[in-house]
Amino acid sequence: MTYIAKPALHHPTLTKNKVGYTRRDYEGRISTLCAGCGHDSISAAIIQACWELDIAPHRVAKMSGIGCSSKTPDYFLSASHGLNSVHGRMPSCLTGASLANRELLYLGVSGDGDSASIGLGQFAHAMRRGVPMVYIVENNGVYGLTKGQFSPTADKGSQSKKGAMNIDSAVDLVSLALQLGASYVARGFSGDKAQLVPLIKGAMRHGGAAFIDVISPCVAFNNHAGSTRSYDHVREHNQALNRIDFIDLAPEAKAEPGAGELLSLPQADGSLLHLRKLHAAHDPTSRLAAMTTIQTLQQQGELPTGLLYVDAQARNLHQQLKMVPGALNALDEAALCPGGAQLERINAALR
Ligand SMILES: Cc1ncc(C[n+]2csc(CCOP(=O)(O)OP(=O)(O)O)c2C)c(N)n1
Ligand code: SF4
Ligand SMILES: [Mg+2]
């Protein structure tokens, strides 16, 4: 992977967060993506979310597949654990790592080609099993790395840079994630950091399968008239359903109600999501309502964004499998070898 290292020097007066790190500690190498690529804005949003949530970088495991989007974990959280896997295989690698050590925060970064083409089966099973992770797809409607072929998320009828028409139906990842059982489903836009950072923070505190589809224009191959993933098209058709004011459970935390209805949704870790409704008909606590709103707006050519659905009570993979608390490599001999009597009981149950 090509990269340019950043100078390691930090100014001593840089502000530190509650766990003693500066914002620079959450950065990575200098990006080699095209200037203006939406993916770089998403990396910046991830850096901001982790710094503001006081997550120690070494408590994060960032994993990806192959693509311009999958290169981005190199450009943030350089002190975190990381794996750049095979094309489309991030979810299974992440699932295995999570089962071995549930104490880390797992961040999966993928592309629309990586997750909706070769990795569609992997995406589906991570969602339906409730793998506790933040799954971000940097969705530009093309295979950016291999020079702009339509990806499966490209809208039917959208045009390529050279004028070809996409004749295939689009895979809508948020609708799929909802149907498959993801318990936190959101859509953001790389050009709206004010909306995106709280969506990522909410996902990081969720504790279950949290999926965020981030529309992220490819300036090299999909930012022209006739594309439905260009900056201009997305700005014109972006329908924000709500705004999150994410608030940790801290004594000084206060919600700031403004225009619209304010919903307070408790998360698994005891924190609260404060959600301001911008679309009267949308109820983010109902899976069916979320599907209906998304389909209705998308049929009108609009792009619903915001927190589309959340189920804070959902059980994740570790709870379903009754996994022991903590990392498996921390289990002592007594836990790993419970003795002959226990073995006899297990064998008897199998006879
Ligand atoms: C097994 C395999 N098949 C195909 C490729 C070629 N390939 C590399 S990246 C890519 C698609 C990337 O598209 P996407 O995931 O949307 O990422 P983007 O570059 O658009 O961010 C493909 C098909 C590969 N590297 N490995
Ligand atoms: S080719 Fe597209 S997706 Fe890849 S870095 Fe350039 S703008 Fe971004
Ligand atoms: Mg892509």
How would you describe this protein?
This is 2-oxoglutarate ferredoxin oxidoreductase subunit beta. Residues 66-214 form the Thiamine pyrophosphate enzyme TPP-binding domain. Its EC number is 1.2.7.11, 1.2.7.3. Pfam families: TPP_enzyme_C (PF02775). Keywords: Oxidoreductase. The chain has 351 residues and is an alpha/beta fold. The protein has a single domain (23-330), classed as Rossmann fold. The chain is built from twelve helices and 13 strands. It has helices at residues 38-52, 68-71, 90-100, 112-118, 120-129, 173-180, 193-204, 231-237, 287-299, 317-320, 333-336, 340-350; strands at 60-64, 81-84, 105-111, 133-139, 142-143, 149-150, 184-189, 209-215, 238-240, 242-247, 262-266, 272-277, 303-310. The chain has an eight-stranded mixed beta sheet, with helices on both faces. Helix 2 (68-71) links the parallel strand 1 (60-64) and strand 2. Helix 1 packs across helix 7 (193-204), helix 3 (90-100) runs parallel beside helix 5 and helix 4 (112-118) packs across helix 5. The longest helix is centred in the N-terminal third of the chain and has 15 residues, at 38-52. The termini are far apart. Residues 250-255 have low confidence and may be disordered. It binds thiamine diphosphate, iron/sulfur cluster and magnesium ion. Residues 66-69, 87, 111-114, 118, 138, 140, 142-146, 151 line the site of thiamine diphosphate. Magnesium ion binds next to helix 4 and strand 5.
